[in-house]
Amino acid sequence: MMDIMKMLRARKYMKRNEPFLASWHAYIGYEMGLFTAFERPFTVEDVADAYGIDEVLLEQWVKVGLSIGHLKEAGRNRYRLKNRWKLPKPKGQNSSGIILKEMMELHIPALLSYPDIMRGGERNHFDERRHADMVAETSRLLEVAAIGKVARQLRDLKTGTVLDLGCGEGGYIKMLAKRFPQIQFIGVEVSDSVAATAREVNAEQPNVEIVCSDLWDFEPDGDADVILMNNVLHYIPLDQRAKLFGRLSDWLNDNGVLAIVTPIAGHADSPPFAHAFNSFFLSFDNLYRLPAEDELKRWGVEAGFDFLGFQTVVKEGSWYIAQYRKEFKSA
């Protein structure tokens, strides 16, 4: 009886993991450009030859694609895409595939390292030079979801300055700068390569300046009217976050607005991904746990902000915008 129960449990776990196969297959297709290859009917042999890749492994990838519905037979041993709209776009087309890439190359390996870390092994180390461009591209997708909410804060600003801290590849600033040409935008990015991309993206935007600097070294020339900070807090040690809020307050005019896009540590009833995401950060020695709601409120109040509330960006990933207004101090 015990052996039967063990087998049933094993089958149950296998069944639960079937959705992972679709993610794995989509990641390989995105990373290798194979979905582009099979947009028209081709044989495995022809694609393997054209791409210079292992034909046996490609054939297995095709078989998985057929079984999960990413590919379909097209006759004469040829295969083509099925339901193209369900699959990630090719690289360079603002593709959701970058999220699969980050998950497969960064998140899952980190989570699989938990047994070694829990036994006392060393934590992972986030290699900025290796992953900065990928993480910046992922952030860009999330910023698209948040841009409408942030734009509402800028509509009444006739002129002024907006600081975007952790501006990434600059796509976010570019969209806002086009919509609000009367506002000066200053993007701050710590990675040299990502900052260079941001400058290139905004080369034709006269109201955008990109600065390559660490947050602790950066000093603005004057006070800002709005500060945006996207996906930065998990790079800041917990004991320095209250200090960071103080610096942000010092950089804002009275009545200025601070908008922080960040994942938030999950509650007991939060989606599983929120807890798994925090687990990922805790597996690194140079990344830090996500903030809790009460911490975000407390740090803001201690720095002289009125807390305006949270707005949802991506509920499943526990991504929110925390918004604040700097208290007006009369002379």
Superfamily (CATH H level) name of the largest domain = Vaccinia Virus protein VP39
Global structural class: alpha/beta
CATH class wording of the largest domain? Alpha Beta
Low-confidence stretches: none
Can you offer a commentary on this structure?
Keywords: Methyltransferase, Transferase. One of its GO terms (biological process) is methylation. InterPro entries: Methyltransf_25 (IPR041698), SAM-dependent_MTases_sf (IPR029063). This is Methyltransferase type 12. The chain is α/β, with parallel strands linked by helices and 331 residues long. It has two domains: 2-92, Winged helix-like DNA-binding domain superfamily/Winged helix DNA-binding domain (Arc Repressor Mutant, subunit A), CATH 1.10.10.10; 140-265 and 288-326, 3-Layer(aba) Sandwich (Rossmann fold), CATH 3.40.50.150. The protein is 47% helix and 20% strand. It has 13 helices and ten strands. The protein has a seven-stranded mixed beta sheet, sandwiched between helices. A three-stranded antiparallel beta sheet has the order 1-3-2. Strand 9 and strand 10 (319-326) form a beta hairpin. The longest helix has 27 residues, at 128-154. The chain is globular. The mean pLDDT is 89.
